[in-house]
Every structure is written in structure tokens, then in C-alpha cells.
Specification:
Radius of gyration: 18 Å
Helix content: 10-25%
Number of helices: 5
Order of helices and strands: EHHEHEHEHEEEEEEEE
Oligomer: single chain
Shape: elongated
Structural class: alpha/beta
Strand order of the largest sheet: 3-2-1-4-5
Largest sheet: 5 strands, parallel
Length: 200
């Protein structure tokens, strides 16, 4: 679990599917399959009413897709990228019925975007089960140009849009699924510390 004193900083638990849910929609990125297996494997009744949307990631084990197919979920949608997975997830949620449960597992970057899609379809963020797996990379919004930079693993980092060097703060927007990045050398131009990697 990732901990911070910043109240907006998301925290993650573990997937714990409700046996009472009429339908499970599970969004998985790469290494998140471990969390899915731990929560669903061997539970035929749950798997029989589970739809998985999956996208690979560079840090996932090579046999991930085969393991996922072997579990026997009701429906499996494999997407080539996070962006296409999110479009598929939005389509599934648009037609979801009462009693559907959404679970998300993968990198922090992925969880934030998938939870934002769930919230856009009326699901409270506390109702979405999340489990962090794999990369600590973050999605960052530059507060100056409003551009998003994905896959950020250290701070400070150059904004991918305006080029400002950004201090990546723990302040987080669930609506945007992104952390806040502010110019680190606004008061002392050029005074930029060495980057530090994010830690769990």
C-alpha cells in the first residue's frame, strides 16, 4: 500500500470481489493479473459472470495472457493500449446494470485513469476496488499548461508539453486521474535538484 500524509493521495487495498454482485467488470494492466488471480482464481461462480478488459504492460510476466485465458472468465477483451482499454471500459459501463462491481488493478498511472472512467459513469471512487501492481509510474498534469505527461517515474520531470521542470506533488485529482506538477524553479530559474525516483 502506498502511504502519504496528503489526503488526496490515493491508497490501494486488494481486490475482494463480492459474491453478491450480479456482474464483475475487472480492468487489468499487465502485472495486475497477479492480483486478479489471487482474488478470482478457482471461484467458478464469480468467473462465470466476470468480464475482463486487459492491456499488456512492459513489466508483465511473458505468460500473462495465457494465464488469463486459462482462468475461464465469461468475457475477455484484450486491448493494445491503455487508451483503447479505457474506451472499451467506458462502453461496458455505459450498459452496465444495477449490481455490477468494478475492480481495477495495474500501475498507479493505469488505476487513476480507469477509476476516472468509472466515476464518469456514476460510480463513487470508494466503491471501486483497486490494487496496485507493477510500476510506480504516475500520470502528471502540469498546472501551468494543463498538459498531461504519463509514465512519470521521478521528480522533477520535464513537462511533455511546455517543457517546464515540474515538481511532482502527492496532491491528486481523482476526476483527472493525475498528480499535480508545479514548476520547481519558478523563483530561482535553473536551480533544479537531481531527480529522485518514486518509492512505495
Amino acid at each position: 500500500m502506498l502511504l502519504s500524509e496528503i489526503k488526496s493521495r490515493p491508497t490501494y487495498g486488494s481486490l475482494s470481489p463480492s459474491p453478491l454482485a450480479t456482474r464483475h467488470i475487472v480492468a487489468i494492466e499487465g502485472a495486475g493479473i497477479k492480483a486478479f488471480e489471487a482474488a478470482f482464481a478457482g471461484k467458478a461462480a464469480l468467473l462465470g459472470r466476470t468480464t475482463v478488459v486487459f492491456t499488456p504492460s512492459p513489466d508483465m510476466p511473458p505468460d500473462t495472457l495465457g494465464r488469463l485465458e486459462a482462468l475461464g472468465v465469461d468475457a475477455l477483451h484484450v486491448s493494445p493500449s491503455v487508451e483503447t482499454l479505457l474506451v472499451r471500459l467506458a462502453g461496458l459501463l455505459a450498459t452496465a446494470t444495477m449490481g455490477t462491481e468494478l475492480s481495477v488493478t495495474g500501475s498507479e498511472n493505469f488505476i487513476g485513469q480507469a477509476v476516472a472512467v468509472g466515476m464518469a459513469h456514476g460510480i463513487g471512487h470508494r466503491s471501486i476496488a483497486t490494487e496496485h501492481s507493477g510500476s510506480l509510474a504516475r500520470r502528471v498534469q502540469c498546472v501551468h499548461c494543463k498538459g498531461f505527461t504519463g509514465g512519470v517515474t521521478e521528480s522533477p520531470v520535464a513537462c511533455g508539453h511546455c517543457g517546464l521542470m515540474l515538481l511532482v506533488r502527492d496532491h491528486y485529482s481523482r476526476r483527472l486521474g493525475a498528480f499535480m506538477g508545479v514548476c520547481i524553479d519558478a523563483e530561482a530559474p535553473g536551480d533544479i535538484p537531481a531527480p529522485e525516483a518514486f518509492h512505495a
